[in-house]
Amino acid sequence: MQPSETTPQPKQELVAWGKTCGLAGVQGAITLSWVVYNLYLPQLLQNLGLDKSLALSLLVVESFLAAGIEPVIGFLSDRDPQSGSLQDRAHFTTKLPLIVATTSAAALLFALLPHASSQSLLLGLSIAWAVAMAAFRPPVMSFLGEFAFKAGLPQAVSVLTLAGGIAGSLRFSAQTSILKLGATTAFLLSSVILLAAIFLLRFLVLREPSSPSKTYSARLPIGRILFLFGFGLMMGWSLRLLLGESIPRLLRNYEVSNFNLWMSLTFLLMSIFAVISGYLTAKIAHRQRNHWSLAAGSALIVVSLGLLLLKPPVAIAFLLAIILLAGLGTVANSPLPLALEFFPSNRGGLALGLYFGATGLAAAIFNLAIPKPAESLDLLAAVLFAQGAVALAGIGALLSTPLQE
Fold first, then answer.
1. In terms of residue numbers, what domain contains 35?
2. Measured between alpha carbons, how far is 142 from 359 in angstroms, rounded to an integer?
3. What is the 3-state secondary structure of the chain?
4. CATH code, 173
5. Residues 6 or more apart in contact with residue 221 via CB below 8 angstroms
6. Are 179 and 39 in contact (CB under 8 A)?
7. Looking only at Cα atoms, what is the longest distance across the chain?
8. Cα(330)–Cα(328) distance, integer angstroms
9. Is residue 258 in some structural domain?
10. Which residues does 196 contact at the CB level (< 8 Å), separation at least 6?
11. How many Cα atoms sit within 13 Å of 48 on the Cβ side?
12. Closest CA to 397 of 304, 296, 302
C-alpha cells in the first residue's frame, strides 16, 4: 500500500530534507542572479549610451512577460511530454529535461550579458534571459509538492525562504563587493552558481525517485484559478510595498546610521522568522494552517506598521520592529504552501505558475502606476498602501479553503 498524499506513515519524515535543501540552493541562486542583474543593469545600459532610467522600463516588460509565461509553463510542466495527460507525482522527474534546458539557457544568456556590443543586443539578451528564468521557475519549484507531505510544506518552504532571504540581503550587505568584482566576473559567477545548484538538484532527484502516488482529477474550477491569481497580485503588492517602500522609509524616518546594514538585517531576520513560522505552522493540526498563519502574520504587520508611524521611544520601536519582522517572515513563508494546497497535487506547476505570474504582474503594474515612488509616495501613503494590500491578502487567505482531495 502506498503512502497517502497528505498523511505520512509513522516512520516517514514530513520533509525530504536533502532534496529540499537542494531546491533551496536553486532558490538562493535565482535570487542572487536578480540581485546582480539589478545592481549592474543601469551601468550596462549607460555603457552603451542608453539612459539608466530605461532599466525600469525593461523590468516592466520582463515582468509582463513573466506574468504570461509562468502560468503556461507551469501548466505544460504538469503534463506528460509523451501522452499529454496529467502526471502523477511519481513522474515529476520528466520535468527535469525542461528544467535543465531552460536553466542552462538562462545561465548562458546571463554570462553573455556584460559582453553585449550593441544596444539592441543588450536589450534582446536581457529579455531572453528573463524569459528563460521565468520558464524554469514554476516546474522546478513545483518539486516542493514531491519533497514534502502537505503537513510539512510550511517547514520545507521556510528553507527556501531562508535561502532567498540570505541571497537577497547581499544586495545591501555585499553591494560594494559585488560591484568591485566587475560585470564579467559577477555575471559569470552567478551563472556558475545557478548551474551548480540545478545539477545538484537533478542528482538528488534522480538518486532517490519518489514513491508513486495517485493522480487526481484534471477538473479545476475557474474560481480557484482566478482566486489564486488575485491572491498573488495582493501578495506581490504587499511585499513590494513593505520591502521596497515602507520599511526603507521607516528606517530613514528613524535616522538609522547605516541604512544598508539595517536593510540587510531586515532580510536576514525576516528569513529566520520564516523558519520559526514554518516550524510552528506545521504543528497546527488543521488543514487551513497556512491560511491562519498568513492571516495572523498580516495582522501583526498592519498593527506594528501603524504604531511605528507614531515614532514611539526606541525600546518600544525596537519591539514593534521585531513584531513587524515576525509578521513579515510569516507572510513571506505562507503563499507557496497555500498555493500548492489550493490545487490538486498533480497541478503544482500550474499553481505556482499562476502565483509567480501574478506577483510579476503586480510588480509591472506598480512600476507603471508609480514609476518614481520616492517622489509620488510619502511615508504615510506607503504604509497605508502596504497595510491595505497585506490586509486584503490576509482576508483572502481566511476566506479560502484548501482543496479536499
1. 17-399
2. 16
3. CCCCCCCCCCCCCCECHHHHHHHHHHHHHHHHHHHHHHHHHHHHHHHCCCCCCHHHHHHHHHHHHHHHHHHHHHHHHCECCCCCCECCHHHHHHHHHHHHHHHHHHHHHHHHHHHCCCHHHHHHHHHHHHHHHHHHHHHHHCCHHHHECHHHHHHHHHHHHHHHHHHHHHHHHCHHHHHHHCHHHHHHHHHHHHHHHHHHHHHHHHHCCCCCCCCCCCCCCHHHHHHHHHHHHHHHHHHHHHHHHHHHHHHHHCCCCCHHHHHHHHHHHHHHHHHHHHHHHHCCCCCCHHHHHHHHHHHHHHHHHHHHCCCCCHHHHHHHHHHHHHHHHHHHHCHHHHHHHHCCHHHHHHHHHHHHHHHHHHHHHHHHHCCCHHHHCCHHHHHHHHHHHHHHHHHHHHHCCCCCC
4. 1.20.1250.20
5. none
6. yes
7. 65
8. 5
9. yes
10. 29
11. 18
12. 296
Residues contacting 140, CB < 8 A, separation 6+: 23, 26, 95, 99, 103, 198, 201
In the chain, the number of structural domains is: 1
Does any domain span residue 11?
Answer: no
pLDDT in tens, 118-164: 999 999 999 999 999 999 999 999 999 889 888 899 999 999 999 99
405 occurs within a structural domain? no
- Determine the average pLDDT of the residues in 346-357: 93
Phi, psi angles (nearest 5°) of residue 148 = -145, 140
From CA 235, how far away is CA 258, in angstroms rounded?
Answer: 28
**323 alpha carbon, distance to own chain's centre:** 22
pLDDT tens digits for 370-384?
A: 988 988 889 999 999
Three-state helix/strand/coil letters over 175-225? HHHHHHHCHHHHHHHHHHHHHHHHHHHHHHHHHCCCCCCCCCCCCCCHHHH
C-alpha cell recorded at residue 217: 482529477
Alpha-carbon gap, residue 382 to 395, rounded angstroms:
20
- Over range 268-277, report the average pLDDT: 97
Contact 354, 229 (CB under 8 A): yes
Amino acid at 323: I
Mean pLDDT of the chain: 90
Residue 1 lies in a domain: no
Please report where in the chains the cell 559582453 appears, as a residue: 115
- Cα–Cα distance measured from residue 276 to residue 243, given in angstroms and rounded to the nearest whole number: 20
Integer-rounded Cα radius of gyration of the chain: 21
Distances (CA, A) of 232 to 76, 85, 266: 20, 27, 22
